[in-house]
Design goal:
A four-stranded antiparallel β-sheet has the order 2-3-1-4, covered by helices on one side. It has two helices and four strands. The chain has helices at residues 18-32, 64-75, and strands at 6-15, 38-47, 50-59, 81-86.
């Protein structure tokens, strides 16, 4: 049984290109590093000069607000927005 209490989706979206996805993903991963969580899956879409990066994470739902805030701070320099949802 997993030690995590829940799952959530983190969605990062903003202007960007295929070449910028890894830089944005690395920034998000750096922001996630202090948290006790597990990234189950990641997916990204690059279309029309926009990117959407989705991360499926296992975490304590009580920490999701802090996780979202830290990721938002890490990717704001790329003009990206962050949203999260417990699934």
């Amino acid at each position: 049984m997993s030690k995590f209490k829940g799952r959530a989706l983190l969605l990062i979206s903003g202007p960007g290109s295929e070449s910028e996805v890894q830089v944005i993903r690395d920034s998000a991963n750096t922001a996630l590093a202090p948290f006790t969580l597990h990234v189950q899956d990641t997916q990204n879409i690059c279309m029309g000069g926009r990117i959407i990066l989705a991360l499926d994470i296992e975490c304590d739902p009580a920490h999701l607000s802090a996780i979202e805030t830290d990721v938002r701070g890490a990717v704001e320099k790329f003009r990206c927005d962050v949203a999260s949802e417990i699934i």
